[in-house]
Design a protein that fits this description.
It contains seven helices and 14 strands. It has a seven-stranded mixed β-sheet with strand order 6-5-4-3-2-1-14. Strands 7-8-9-10-11-12-13 form a seven-stranded mixed β-sheet. With 259 residues, it is α/β, with parallel strands linked by helices. It has a single domain (2-258), classed as Metallo-beta-lactamase, Chain A (4-Layer Sandwich). Strand 3, helix 1 and strand 4 (70-72) form a beta-alpha-beta unit. The protein has helices spanning 56-62, 78-81, 88-93, 105-114, 183-188, 211-221, 237-241; strands spanning 2-7, 38-43, 46-50, 70-72, 99-103, 130-134, 138-141, 144-153, 156-165, 171-175, 194-198, 225-229, 248-250, 256-258. It starts with a strand and ends with a strand. The longest helix is centred in the C-terminal third of the chain and has 11 residues, at 211-221.
């Protein structure tokens, strides 16, 4: 299994427009430059893209993403959905065949609203094509399985994902944009090699986990390695990494793991 962190930042990106002078952020450290959060997972040469924010095109170029076989949308907030139009290039690489898109029904409806021209079996002209599917409890793909769980995100619910690669048995947990991790999701995460968690900032937030809340979840899951994502501009990579326990770290844009 291979995991590439295309983006690790919150909905505004980091640094923000008109970055507050009161925020202590070392902009000379490239690990503090965070585009919107998304990952690219490869299981036995099956390429799965999770979410597509406004920088998706540049993320693919910078990380040399050449193939997408399946797309999973965790939820339809702008920083996770708005870059889906750039899937058009990957449709052309599939000879126009529509890319299968998996999500909750409410989020598939948002895809229909935003990209009505893309809901088709075959791409036409320079446009993308999406084949929409409700995300099942267990999505069986050529390279392995992806299990879903539901996580609370303020007044919304998002997909939590657990990837299990066929053959190697490697397990990746991806729980982002959530205020907490319910017991069923905790149980699903047991035995994970890698755990990726939402960790917005030190201060509490109504719809995202704080760093302390994420640390509590990480301790309970006890995965092989935990990486935090979706950090805002208040988190400085070098300064705040020093306070994290062993086995926990802040992911950065372009980080690639091979399990």
């Amino acid at each position: 299994m291979e995991v590439t962190f295309l983006g690790t930042g919150t909905s505004e990106g980091v640094p923000t427009i008109l970055q507050p002078e009161s925020v202590q952020l070392d902009v000379h450290n490239k690990k503090n430059w965070r585009t919107r959060t998304s990952i690219h997972v490869v299981m036995n040469d099956h390429h799965i893209q999770v979410d597509a924010g406004p920088e998706f095109r540049l993320q693919c170029i910078h990380n040399d993403i050449k193939k997408i076989d399946s797309f999973i949308l965790t939820h339809s907030h702008s920083d996770h959905i708005i870059g889906m139009d750039d899937l058009r290039r990957f449709c052309r690489m599939r000879n126009g065949e529509a890319i299968p898109v998996y999500s909750q029904e409410c989020d598939l409806n948002r895809v229909r609203d935003i990209f009505p021209y893309a809901i088709r079996d075959k791409a036409e002209g320079n446009y993308p094509a999406f084949k929409l599917h409700p995300m099942p409890d267990c999505l069986v793909l050529p390279g392995g399985k992806v299990y879903k769980t539901i996580l609370p995100h303020g007044n919304f619910f998002v997909l939590g994902l657990v990837f299990e690669e066929e053959g190697s048995g490697k397990k990746l947990v991806y729980y982002i944009d959530c205020k907490s991790v319910p017991i069923p999701a905790m149980k699903m995460a047991t035995g994970a090699d890698i755990v990726v968690l939402d960790a917005l900032r030190h201060r509490e937030h109504f719809s995202h986990m704080s760093i302390d809340e994420a640390l509590s979840v990480a301790r309970e899951i006890s995965g092989g390695q935990t990486w935090f994502v979706h950090m805002c501009c208040e988190v400085d990579h070098e300064r705040d990494s020093a306070s994290l326990p062993e086995g926990v770290g802040f992911a950065w844009d372009g980080m690639r793991l091979v399990l």
